[in-house]
Amino acid sequence: MGKRVLVTGGTGFIGSHLVEWLLKKNYEVFCLVRNPARLRWLKGLPVYLIIGDCQAKDLKLPQVEVVYHVAGVVKAKRSSLFYNVNYKGTVNLAQAVLKQKLPLKYFIFISTLAVCADSLSHYAHSKLLAEKELLKLPLPLIIFLPTAIYGPRDKEFLSFCRLIKYGFALILH
Questions:
Q1: Neighbour order of strands in the sheet with 48-51
Q2: Residue 147: what pLDDT?
């Protein structure tokens, strides 16, 4: 096996594709999984599951060289959920990495291009707060700001594309 990596959010849209790619590249993949009942795209894959939550204060992590922090909330009924998961969960994960003195080469945080907007949604603001806090920590940090992402397994953007297909368009101000 190659490098040992940890993926948060491996049960989600982006994370599950990342896990598959890492396995093809012969990485030893550990997935921090909050809900073991939601392993739809991880079933049958040779990954090591760590049942836990980025927000847990007693978070125990494996000895890995790279953390891909993909987990996050993209829509919520209460704005507090964005801040608890995207901001506090991210900071807690980073602090667990530092506390456990993992031999990290990279801590890769998947943020959003939405942090660059003039007016921030709660989602974007929670990601921006996480970015700012991560930059204060002594981590080998990479912050990735993807644009809109869609494809197989996507549940959010596909609905928007279907509306366009049927002649509807949303105009956002």
A1: 48-51, 28-33, 4-8, 66-69, 106-110, 141-144
A2: 78
d(CA 38, CA 42): 9
Single-letter amino acid code for the residue at 99: K
- Torsion-angle region of 86 (φ positive above 0: left; ψ -120 to 50: alpha; else: beta): alpha
Q: Would you say how long the chain is, in residues? A: 173
Strand 141-144 with 66-69, pairing? unpaired
Phi-psi region of 167 (alpha: psi -120 to 50; beta: other; left: phi over 0): left
DSSP characters for 3-17?
A: -EEEEESTTSHHHHH
| Distance, CA of 35 to CA of 33 (rounded, Å) | 6
The answer to whether the CB of 55 falls within 8 A of the CB of 69 is no
Structure tokens of 13? 């849209």
The neighbour count for residue 32, using CB atoms within 10 Å, is: 26
**Two tokens, residue 65:** 């060289």
pTM of the model: 0.87
The DSSP annotation for 54-105 comes to TT-TT------SEEEE----S--SSHHHHIIIIIIIHHHHHHHHHHTT---S
Q: What is the pLDDT of residue 173?
A: 44
- Residues with Cβ within 8 Å of 102's Cβ and at least 6 positions away in sequence, in order, are 61, 63, 64, 67
Which parts of the chain sit beneath pLDDT 70?
A: 1-2, 148-164, 168-173
